[in-house]
Every structure is written in C-alpha cells, then in structure tokens.
C-alpha cells in the first residue's frame, strides 16, 4: 500500500497528489512515469512523474480527471492509500547542453515538462517555455515554469490569459527567429502532432512524450505500441519520448480511442454509484 | 458434477488391465463455454483409487524418466491406491513444489504419461490427474503442516520474478535457512500462472495458495518492483544480496510484422490474457479494465497460449477462428487443450497464414487476409514446412485479432545489467547444470534461459538454482552433471508456441 500525503486541487478537473513511494523516488529521473492502481478492482493507469523528493521518498503527480479512474483518484487525499504504485518506468529524458531549448507544455502536459525544463536549465541550456491551455482555468504551474525558464510565454485558446492563440503560433515564431537547438512538446496527442508538424518545416529536432494506453508498463503486453519511423515501438519501454517527426500520430490518436464505449460505461456507472452514496 | 464420467465403473474388483483409464469429470462443453469456472473437475476418491490400481508398479519405471523433475511416480500412486492421499502428497512434495499446478498443466502426453509402460498396449496411467487429486485433497483437507526449515544462515538471496522458477527457488532456499526476497514487477505473484493461464484451466486460488505457502516459509515478496528500473541487478549486489536468481521469464510478445498489426482490435496474446486474467477484464465493469472481442475473432497460432486466448475470447461471447499455418498434427498445444477447444466450438482454420489485417476508416480491424498453405519438405525442427499456395488469398471478416506467435526474452532487465552474457535471441546464457551466468553470484533459469517452455521445466530450474546457490554461498564446488538429476531445460530446444 502506498500512502497519499497530500492533495491540492487546481481546478474542478486538475489536481496534484504527493505519494509516499521511496523506492520509486530513489530511482526516478525526469521523463519517467509511474503506473498506479487504486484498489483490487482498479485499472492500471500511467501518470508522469511531475516532481520528486528523494529525501522525503515522495513522488508528485498532476492529474486531469477525465474518466472513472482519474475521478476516483480525485476523491482520495491525505491519509488514503493506493494499492499499487510502480515505477519509475520508461526511458529517462536525455539531458544535455545543446543551446536554446523550447519547452512547450499543453494542458496537463505542463506537469511532465516541468522536471525536464528544470533539468535542461540546470544543464546550462537557455530554456524558453510555452505554457498553453484551452482557458485560464486549465493553465497549470505557470509560476513553477517561470522559475526554471529564461523566458515564459503563456497562451490560451480563448484568450482568457496570455496570448490568444494556439501553442503552435509562438513555437513557429521562435523557429522562424532561428537558433533553436531542440523542442520538447508534451500535451494532448493533437497538440504534439501539430507542434511536430510546425517544427518539421524548420528542421528543428522535436521530442514528444506519447500517452498511449498501457497495461503493464514493462514491455510484456504491447498495448502501448505505436509506429515510429515505420517501426513498431513499445511506448512504455522504448519511450515514452520519441522524435516527433517520426511518430504516426494518427495511429496514436486512433489507438487512444480504442475503449471509448467501455470508458463511458465505466464512468457513468461510477458517477451513478457516487451520486447514490451522496443521497444515502 | 460426476454425471459425465465416461468410463464405466465395474461392479467387482476387475483384473488390473481390464480397467479402462478413468475419465475426468468435466463441465459439459456448452455450459463451460459460457463461464470461467474450471473445466475439469478432478477425480473423487473412488475413481482415484481405481485409476491408481491400474499402475503395475514397475521395477524400472519408465514414467519417471519422462518427468523433468523425476517424481517417484509409482510410490505416490501406490499411496493413493491404498487410500492414503496424505501420504501421496507428502511423497510428491519431496520432489515437486506445485503438484496442483503441474497435475493440471503439464503436457503429460509428452512427458511422464508418454513413457508409461501401459501406454504400449493400453492407455497410460493418468499420472497428472492423480497428482492433481492428491494436491486437491490437501487443499480441501488442510495441509500436513510446514516443512522443517534449517537454522538461519545469515545470507540474503534476491530472486527476480515470481513465476514457477522464482517461487520454487525461493521456497527451497528459505527451507535451507536463507533470507530470501522475491522482486516481482507485477502487482500479483505467480508469473504466467497468474497473468497468462486462464482461470478455467488453472484457478487463481490455487496459484495464490502456492504463493502463500512460499511466503509462510519466510520469503519476503516485494511486488511492484521492476528490476532494471526500480532497482538494478548491480544495485542489488551492492545492497547486500549475496546471490541473485534471475527468473524473469520470456514475456516479450512477438508480432508477425504484417500490415495492419497496430489497428484497434489487434491484441498480442499476452495483452489479451493479461487483461482478462490479471486485470479480470472478463468481469468488466465490476473490474475497471476493459477488453473487446466483438462478434468474430481470429486467433493466430496453435500453442497453449493460442488455445487459452481462443477459449477466453469464446467465453467473452465471440465466434472464434483459430488460424494456423500447419496441420492438426503439428499443433503444439497440449492434446487436452486442443480437444477441449474443439468441443467448445472453436473453429480451426488450418494450413492458412495471415498476410495482412485490413482496417476500416476509424482504424479498427475489419478483415484478415490469409493465404492457404500446403506442407512441403521437413524443416530443421523435423516438421513439414508449410508453403503458401499461390493465388489462394482469401479474407475473413473479424472484429478482433489475437496474435499468438510466441514470445521472446524481455530486454528490460538484461539491458540494465552489466557483464551478463546473452544468446543471439536475448536469452541469458546459464550453465546447464549449475545455472551460473557469466556474472559472479548471479544465476538464471526458467523461460529467460530456455525461451518459452513449460511450468515443470521452470520449476526444475528453480530447484537446481537453489542447490547451486546454496553451494556457492557455502564456498563449495557447484553441482556437476552426475549430481544433478533435475532437467533445467537449458540443453533442450524449447519452443511451445509458434
Ligand atoms: C506515459 C503516460 C504518461 C501520462 N501522464 C499523465 C499525467 O501526468 N497526467 C494525466 O492526467 N494523465 C496522464 N496520462 C494519461 C492518463 O494515463 C489517462 O488520462 C488515464 O489513464 C485515464 O484513465 P481514466 O480511467 O480516468 O479514464 P478513461 O475514461 O478510462 O480513459 C480516458 C482516456 O484516457 C486514455 N486511457 C485510458 N486508459 C488508459 C491506460 N490504461 N493507459 C493510458 N491511457 C489510458 C484513453 O485515451 C482514454 O480515451 C499519461 C499517459 C501515459 C501513457
Ligand atoms: C498463456 C500461456 C499458457 C501456458 N500453458 C502452459 C501449459 O499448459 N503447460 C505448461 O507446462 N506450460 C505452459 N506455459 C508455459 C509456462 O507457463 C512457462 O514456461 C513458465 O511459466 C515459465 O516460468 P518462469 O518462472 O520461467 O517465468 P514466468 O512464469 O514468465 O514468470 C516470470 C515473472 O518475472 C516477472 N518479471 C519479468 N521481468 C521482471 C523484472 N524486470 N523485474 C521483476 N520481475 C520481472 C514477470 O512479471 C513474471 O511474474 C504457458 C504459457 C503461457 C503464456
Ligand atoms: S510433474 Fe508433470 S511430468 Fe512430472 S509426473 Fe507430474 S505431471 Fe508428470
Ligand atoms: S510406467 Fe506406468 S505402470 Fe509403470 S510405474 Fe509408471 S505409471 Fe505405473
Ligand atoms: S504497456 Fe504493456 S508493453 Fe507497454
């Protein structure tokens, strides 16, 4: 059992939790993720390690509640326990000094990009970050990102904060201005697809972190597979980071939708059961 | 449910050889195709005694030669015949750790029963079923107590993987007085026994009981530990493990590398079975993990894994077509599984090989194209090589495809370990008799060494490893060929699926 030490709600849908998992905290590096399972009936879901504290033996996750498991997790807080917490999984980001790096985080993707941006900055890079969201309420960790960036750009799709545009617009401008050695883009599949498309024009190397559906996270099942450069890769062990210009995003997006009807059934049943409990 | 025991029970004590091999009661095919309960129900005492009485107690028993761990088969059968199942289980436990498992899943027709002398003119003694009977008797009537454990030796062994190889090795070492920790990547122990082999063939309660037993010997289980990620083998050696046994299996699924394999609805057998068994997706939405089969499913392959996938898909409500490139005779699964699958209504599409999977506009499987095959000259394995019949391509409409064409060694652990010699296929190189690897203090056995093989071979490897590790830690010379009566499978060409 793994103890939840803290929960902070950022909005109705987005929250942060700090979980006691000393073995994971001792080993993890930026770019890696964990898999958790709430209880005996639970699904195994992957979440990126957004922060960690080796001394305290804790891992921080930032989650967007979208379906049954992430909703159920949202109800848990300080003092509650998770049945399983496995990690660190995936290949860590390669952190090198390359020059100027753009870190573009979309929505919940800002959390996973934060430790990467921090490490890139510590390695001596100039870090320009773009923090993007659909609206102001979904904007995440602007302050934290500012701390680890030389420059910070905020965009919202609806203009409620920062620039009124999509993340690709400032990205394009930066590429245009030149001298960008590397782009990191993490967020929803569609966002990563268009960021990669944008940078391809300028030939700027772009790394993305894929969020395919997973089960074991150790290379045993192949649920997470995705075509990269025409080859099938297992995202959980070969990734999650890949060259965005090589990824078959349409396949990734299609595979993410594999269980939509079941996910809806599961969430609806859960919402009904919690509503009933509230009345009782 | 004893109504469909097929053999008749004679009224008076018959002549030994006139007694037919006793059938095992099982759920009727129509009924069991709709549930996940165990298919075969086991002998009752009377039937077990009758079956045991068929054994002629050979002086030089051939059957024992066929058992990779050399169980004293005549002796345990004799005790069953005398109405002493407690004695029988004690006898079995001298050699095997998991009689309830092996009695159910060993390919007996290629091992002990194949050699049984009665098989020459009649049917062989049902050794597996009797083994299972004794083990189930113990389960129902309470264990005969914990075995004696030696005084603590003050040395610590790390075991990676909790499949049959790891569990056996850990149990044996604990009995010898070592402190043992098992590190398991998944959230439940048991390896393939828990994530691969379905409930209807091997109830998970049995696997859990075997794991509980190992724990009761003092073995510590660290679940959710991925060696190579959470901790590396090198770190384990630095952190006070005096020796390590690598038993991480061969769990990397192979695909066919044909177009369309990443479409929605295409599963590896590992994924399909893991969802169903480990995550209990067959009980969705009570359990959260989903699984989809649709109306018609194609399963590719004909090994045990393919049979398990096909029969699981059937139980989830699909019409199942099993596509295999050779003929019925070459199907590598256990005879019993093939027989059960056919009874349940799995449709065999033999001498056919998939060439591509075709999707619809939403990226879902829609059809599978196969080409008909004919058998040509024998290949290296002695089986006749299937060759495609030109122009015979045809398409079958399906909603899901389960690819079961074998597994390879998962490189996650081996890549992160320094100084570990591997074969070309990525398996760990270990000495046939001692299971030593090229890395000092590190031993390896089971599927990670042999490639996918059998439960009993993995168990045998676990036993050998325990003896080797004991000697290593006491500074004694390791086992040589004569001393090692257990087959570890390293020298055998193993290959269950494909
Ligand atoms: C490497 C990786 C890192 C991730 N990091 C984060 C993170 O830091 N924060 C965050 O909020 N989300 C993250 N995700 C996505 C997160 O795993 C899904 O949102 C979560 O599984 C949804 O589960 P659910 O039951 O709440 O929703 P569901 O209703 O079950 O699913 C909603 C959608 O989530 C995806 N999904 C469903 N099940 C899984 C699964 N088992 N594995 C992966 N995706 C699934 C599907 O695309 C699905 O349509 C990450 C995914 C991956 C692969
Ligand atoms: C579906 C299926 C059906 C089968 N049917 C039969 C049958 O009927 N009869 C028969 O005799 N054999 C059968 N087999 C084969 C048999 O199950 C295997 O040969 C046997 O389980 C091998 O045992 P093992 O201990 O070597 O490995 P496994 O049982 O594979 O166990 C390995 C364990 O190590 C864990 N692990 C892997 N990597 C790591 C890591 N890095 N860190 C920590 N833990 C790790 C895995 O999660 C797993 O639990 C079947 C196999 C399958 C897949
Ligand atoms: S362990 Fe397997 S091979 Fe050995 S006697 Fe039992 S069923 Fe036969
Ligand atoms: S070979 Fe057959 S008859 Fe002889 S001891 Fe073995 S099981 Fe009994
Ligand atoms: S999640 Fe199973 S192989 Fe990647």
What order do the helices and strands come in, and which of them pair?
The complex is a heterodimer of chains A (280) and B (498).
Chain A: E1 2-9, E2 14-20, H1 22-27, E3 33-37, E4 45-48, E5 51-53, E6 58-64, H2 68-74, E7 81-82, E8 84-89, E9 100-106, H3 110-122, E10 126-133, H4 142-148, E11 151-156, E12 163-164, H5 168-177, E13 182-186, H6 189-202, E14 206-209, E15 225-228, E16 231-234, H7 235-238, E17 241-243, H8 249-256, H9 260-279
Parallel strand pairs in A: 9-10, 9-13, 10-11, 11-12, 13-14
Antiparallel strand pairs in A: 1-2, 1-7, 2-6, 3-4, 3-8, 5-6, 14-17, 15-16
Chain B: H1 29-32, H2 45-52, H3 62-66, H4 73-81, H5 85-95, H6 99-105, H7 112-115, H8 127-141, E1 156-160, H9 164-175, E2 179-183, H10 192-195, H11 204-216, E3 220-222, H12 233-238, E4 243-246, E5 252-253, E6 266-268, H13 269-278, E7 296-300, H14 304-315, E8 319-324, H15 335-344, E9 347-350, E10 352-359, E11 365-378, E12 384-388, E13 394-397, E14 400-403, E15 407-408, H16 411-415, E16 442-444, H17 447-450, H18 455-473
Parallel strand pairs in B: 1-2, 1-4, 2-3, 4-16, 6-14, 7-8, 7-14, 8-9
Antiparallel strand pairs in B: 5-15, 10-11, 11-12, 11-13
Helix pairs in contact in B: 2-4, 4-5, 4-8, 5-8, 6-8, 9-11, 9-18, 13-14, 14-15
The structure holds flavin-adenine dinucleotide (2 copies), iron/sulfur cluster (2 copies) and FE2/S2 (inorganic) cluster (FES).
Residues 55-58, 61-63, 73-74, 116-118, 125, 127 of chain B line the site of one iron/sulfur cluster.
